[in-house]
Request: fold
Amino acid sequence: MGGSTRCRTWAALTLLMLASEGCVTGHLFDAALRREQPLSYHDALVDGDRLTLGYTALVTNDAGRVVARKERRAAISLTALHRQDLPVEAFPVEHLADDAPLTGRRLAIGAEGGEGGPPGYLETEAAPDGREISFVLHDSSGGPYAPFYSSALTRTSTAPWVYPLLPLGVAVDLATFPILLVFFPVMLLIGA
Reply:
């Protein structure tokens, strides 16, 4: 019984791939793309010469549908936060283990530090949908600091379920578009 179900599943996947337009392998990778973007910051600490952050990230698929939430941690050099000329995609961010301890002097998030509160704070800017899209560090021990854009923390990955389907996708592509036999290795090398 399990064998016939498996055969029907493979047949359905093959028909779905044959009915799709274009490169099946490309469609598989598009469907497996995962983008992880910060939603909100919940911890900020100055630890020596770096700012360590704890934040919640939304994981979305290529269509923009939320598939998961993850708690993440990252560290940013205070020296880099001084620079105004760094593009977002080149900003040096150290992604920490999800369970890495956050140590250092705690900062308030989203509110000004007062007499009774921490001496520094992160002034956050939120998008209309509530995502915190940037912050400016205000801290008496250094500064002025440039705005930090949350998109610098974005991670992209490929869902692991796509890899067992690749041989089938490549076979369908080669059967329906034989010219791909010539261009497929080139596309893999340049990342089409």
Observations:
- The chain has five helices and ten strands.
- Residues 2-19 form the longest helix (18 residues).
- The chain has a mean pLDDT of 79.
- The two ends are 41 Å apart (CA to CA).
